[in-house]
């Protein structure tokens, strides 16, 4: 952590995460959108060379990952969004996604890890078998952290489950 980020993280912990934006219907984003208990679904559209990620958590959110070879834009040149601007490519059986252009209004982890609009992610999605998705993310935000760092977890397919309609209402 940079000193300001550590202080903010510690404040959020002492505060019991009471100021979590999700409690005010602000979208979970970054890696956090894959942690929501309501699930998500990834759909590859080969006609338009893109992947749609649809989330069960809050107000019918969805994310778009371009597979047409474009590069993510320079974060200095775009208005930041919750899901950023993502482009991906297949490396064997792994979808590698590079994202930038985030705003700083969301927490990208359930534990309140801070970030700035300089955040850039490299995500790796590997379906190691029919029921298992391996997820790895490298976080690069030089204004918040002193170095890049990586986290990973495994997601299990829930057979027969559909994403239910859910709207966040205060």
Please explain how this structure is put together.
With 170 residues, this protein is mainly beta. It contains 1 helix and 8 strands. The protein has one helix spanning 3-14; strands at residues 40-45, 50-55, 62-66, 85-91, 94-100, 120-129, 132-140, 149-156. An 8-stranded mixed β-sheet has the order 1-2-3-4-5-6-7-8, with no helix packed on it.
Which structural class is indicated by helix and strand composition? Answer: mainly beta
Average per-residue pLDDT, rounded, comes to 90
Tally of strands = 8
**Helical amount among residues, as a percent range?**
under 10%
C-alpha Rg (nearest Å): 16 Å
Shape assignment: globular
Q: Strand order, main sheet: write it out.
A: 1-2-3-4-5-6-7-8
Regions with pLDDT < 50 over 5+ consecutive residues? none
Largest sheet: 8 strands, mixed
Span between termini? 32 Å
Helices, by number, come to 1
Q: Hey, roughly how much beta strand do the residues contain?
A: 25-35%
Order of helices and strands: HEEEEEEEE
